[in-house]
Amino acid sequence: MNIAMLGSGFIARFYADTLHAQRRVDRIINVYSRNADNAKRYAEDYGLESYSTSMEEIIMDESVDVVIISLPNHLHEEAVMSCVKAGKAVLCTKPLGRTAKEAKRMLEAVEKAGLFAGYLEDLCYTPKFLKSVESVNNGSLGKILWTKSREAHPGPHSDWFWDKDQSGGGAIIDLGCHCVEIGRNFIGKNVRPVEVMCWADTQVHPIEAEDHAIGLVKYENGAIGQFEVSWTFRGGMDLRDEVMGTEGTIWLNSFLRTGFDLFTTGKGANYIAEKAESDSGWLFPVGDEAHELGYPHMFTDMFDAIDKGRAPRETFYDGYIVNAILDAAFLSAKSKNWKRIIIEDWRGSEGRTGEKEYNSYDADHFLIKKEILPNGDEKLILKHKDSGKMIQKTLKK
Ligand SMILES: NC(=O)c1ccc[n+]([C@@H]2O[C@H](COP(=O)([O-])OP(=O)(O)OC[C@H]3O[C@@H](n4cnc5c(N)ncnc54)[C@H](O)[C@@H]3O)[C@@H](O)[C@H]2O)c1
């Protein structure tokens, strides 16, 4: 496929490094940037046919099949609407919108026009993540009760992120969008997120937006999705997820510990990894960053989906739900109360409260707990089904 790239900054380069690597067949053919020098440099670096400071011109190019939006958050809607006007398939980076309202307008526009629209949520495509979701889906962890996702680093790399009007918020919108979608994937996208409790503060930087937040997203089936996001974290980029179910647990570390530790005095100092704060001492580089961050699998899914006429794993609808959850998080942080998540167009299942199943020990008792003691005895805690009385039973070794 022929791809048009909108934006020539940080993520546009990550995407190009992925798309033009490893003998891939889909190619970026042109690029839009508001700055002609940056557009030219990007076009030269990636061997593109053309570049322009006009977004329309790049999208309208008749050989373009798919447009990738790599622009700051406040420009996503305008860019999506231009793709709709041109009738082009569109892939948009995260977050889809600054608010659910914005995201919903984009969702409705692409659906009305019948266009393919993919949400570029790379962290839901890392090889570890895909395998984890598979384990969850095949029941290895039982029912998912609690997910925890953290993205924390010392802050983003461009001015617009730090300006609330352009970005839509601080760490919540920038990083929370990843964490919330990671939680949804594990808990089940079909399960309705109902309310959010969030703490947020501006602990370090002289900015209007929050630079640190911790939130809980409650789902209709009783599961809880925790997110921890920060622009105040020192020591690199901390990307960790945890999934806790009735039958098992998964812990993932996607960046600071990928099994590659390096010590250097600093001689020959170079780029180490995204948001690394040092280039000497013990360092934690990443073998193939794009791969560890999920970009190759993400684009493979997107382009396969276009070819096969199916939806990708991450859609504009997912982007809209994420924005709806984040809207509630902002309101909760302000009010210090649980806030209902307003989803005007819920497409998942309904009425999944009270989905609890208890293990029976025998006809009369529930099995609460079984444990082997240090002396080898097995201890059972049982609850009588009628009287509710707790008893314990010891099976001697
Ligand atoms: N993991 C991820 O998926 C990931 C990582 C980083 C950024 N992003 C997202 O990618 C988007 C871009 O972020 P980035 O890190 O590449 O930012 P960046 O600042 O590095 O690049 C932004 C690009 O947009 C251009 N631009 C900035 N302001 C503009 C304006 N007013 N008009 C026209 N062009 C303008 C810049 O010149 C640059 O080409 C954001 O939505 C961000 O959230 C996603």
Descriptive notes:
By secondary structure, the protein is α/β, with parallel strands linked by helices. It has 3 domains: 2-122, NAD(P)-binding Rossmann-like Domain (Rossmann fold, 3-Layer(aba) Sandwich), CATH 3.40.50.720; 124-294 and 311-340, Dihydrodipicolinate Reductase, domain 2 (2-Layer Sandwich); 365-395, no CATH class. 30% of the residues lie in helices and 26% in strands. It is built from 11 helices and 18 strands. The strands form 4 sheets. A 7-stranded mixed β-sheet has the order 12-11-7-10-9-8-15. A 6-stranded parallel β-sheet has the order 3-2-1-4-5-6, with helices on both faces. Helix 8 (171-187) crosses helix 11 (316-335). The longest helix has 20 residues, at 316-335. The radius of gyration is 24 Å and the shape is globular. The mean pLDDT is 96. The chain binds nicotinamide-adenine-dinucleotide. Residues 7-12, 33-35, 38, 70-73, 75, 93-94, 120, 122, 158, 160 line the site of nicotinamide-adenine-dinucleotide (NAD). Nicotinamide-adenine-dinucleotide (NAD) is lined by residues 7-12, 33-35, 38, 70-73, 75, 93-94, 120, 122, 158, 160.
